[in-house]
Design a protein that fits this description.
This protein has 279 residues and is mostly helical. It has a single domain, classed as Cytochrome Bc1 Complex, Chain D, domain 2, CATH 1.10.760.10. Helix content is 43%, strand content 9%. It has a three-stranded mixed beta sheet with strand order 7-6-9. Strands 1-2 form a two-stranded antiparallel ribbon. Helix 3 packs across helix 6, helix 4 packs across helix 6 and helix 7 packs across helix 10. The chain is globular.
Length: 279
């Protein structure tokens, strides 16, 4: 008897395999035993939080904040993070926000970079050469962001939406979040727009609902145990664009600020616990 079944063309096999891999990466939940693994990892993370390495970066950031540096030999103690010159406490949980002196919304990292330029005399080109941590260097701005974030520990997230520019930036961030493109036709929402998705051993929070939205904000800046590096939300957004196979944004770009505005405002009301531990 002849077998009427025909072998699947090689291209269709590859396509099926890719679809399966993507389903595993950002698709339906896997077997229950993976949930147990995730639970154990969360317990491990909680233990690590008791002696969080991020505190070392906070201390370094505080020293950098108060030390006169740069071509103008000035400190950052007059930097206005939105609550008045020099006011650091509570600033992190109230950003991104509108700044009248620049006529636009800025997130905390973008604002710190702005102050390093305007107060201390650094250039954006200089600060953009290597803005993220790697195995050989932690940029000063990473420690500065960690210090500022630590001054909002145990405060509620309150990203403002009172100014028209803040609401406009939120809407732009929402559009970017759901925009699908690239070789995999991905968007931020592909992984973070539905409940029950997972990549490797980690559940992917849904940033569009009140239960999952705080996860986009809480725990950042974060100390990444697998690399021993401190990372900010600017890095996290940049890496997400890379994983989507999108062009990576310029450092402290308005695109990233818009995304952080959308996600931060969705997290409003949740308690910020300070710089955290990441996988």
């Amino acid at each position: 008897m002849n077998d009427s079944r025909k072998p699947m063309p090689r291209g269709r096999i590859a396509g099926s395999m890719l679809a399966g891999l993507l389903a595993v990466a950002c698709g339906a939940p896997l077997a229950q035993e993976r949930d147990v693994t995730a639970e154990q990892f969360e317990k491990f993370r909680a233990e690590m939080e008791q002696a969080n390495t991020a505190e070392l970066f906070e201390a370094k950031g505080e020293d950098l904040w108060k030390t006169k540096r740069g071509p103008r030999n000035a400190s950052l103690e007059q930097c206005d993070l939105g609550l008045g010159p020099g006011v650091v406490k509570g600033a992190y949980v109230q950003a991104p926000r509108y700044f009248a002196d620049v006529g636009k919304v800025m997130d905390i990292e973008a604002r710190i970079v702005h102050c390093m330029i305007t107060l201390q005399g650094f250039t954006l080109a200089e600060l953009s050469k290597q803005p993220f941590s790697n195995a050989t260097r932690t940029p000063e701005v990473v420690s500065l962001v960690t210090y500022v974030a630590g001054q909002s520990r145990d405060m509620p997230i309150a990203v403002p939406q009172s100014h028209p520019k803040e609401r406009e930036t939120y809407r732009l961030g929402e559009s970017i979040f759901f925009f699908r493109a690239g070789p995999w036709d991905f968007s931020c929402a592909s992984c973070h727009g539905e409940d029950g998705k997972r990549i490797r051993t980690q559940n992917l929070p849904n940033f569009t609902n009140p239960a999952g939205a705080p996860r986009s904000f809480i725990g950042w800046p974060g100390y990444r145990m697998t690399g021993g590096l401190m990372h900010t939300l600017q890095w996290r957004m940049n890496d997400c664009f890379r994983q989507q196979r999108f062009p990576e944004p310029n450092y402290v770009s308005d695109t990233v600020t818009a995304l952080l505005t959308y996600m931060g405002a969705n997290a409003n009301g949740a308690m910020y616990k300070g710089p955290g531990i990441k996988r």
